[in-house]
Amino acid sequence: MTALGPDSRPRLAPGVRLRHDGVRDAWVLLAPETIIDANPVAVEIIRRLTGDATLAEVVDDLAGAFTAERSLIEADVRALLDKMIGKGLVEP
């Protein structure tokens, strides 16, 4: 699990952007010298990583938008953030 607390405000690191690739009709995460395909679940999470919303607010927003249990959503969000923080794609 990430060391992020519920009041943390995660955001994409400088130079990292979520963009829709019209040629492939797919969402991709653009980082310096890197393009990462983003699956639909990741896109929903990444869209909310603005630095304005807290981690708890991101999870609550996702829980309101989808039918999964909040605890499962939080686990998925934290797992993705662990990977993204480790790769320097997200700032806690």
Describe what you observe in this structure.
The protein is an alpha+beta fold and 92 residues long. It has a single domain (11-87), classed as Arc Repressor Mutant, subunit A. Helices cover 38% and strands 21% of the residues. The chain contains 3 helices and 5 strands, in the order ββββαααβ. The protein has helices spanning 40-46, 55-65, 70-86; strands spanning 11-12, 17-21, 26-31, 34-37, 90-91. The strands form 2 sheets. A 3-stranded antiparallel β-sheet has the order 2-3-4, with helices on one face. The chain has a two-stranded antiparallel ribbon with strand order 1-5. A hairpin with a 4-residue loop joins strand 2 and strand 3 (26-31). Helix 2 (55-65) packs across helix 3 (70-86). The mean pLDDT is 94. Monomer. Interacts with PqqE. This is Pyrroloquinoline quinone biosynthesis peptide chaperone PqqD. Keywords: PQQ biosynthesis. InterPro entries: PQQD (IPR008792), PqqD_bac (IPR022479), PqqD_sf (IPR041881). Pathway: Cofactor biosynthesis; pyrroloquinoline quinone biosynthesis.
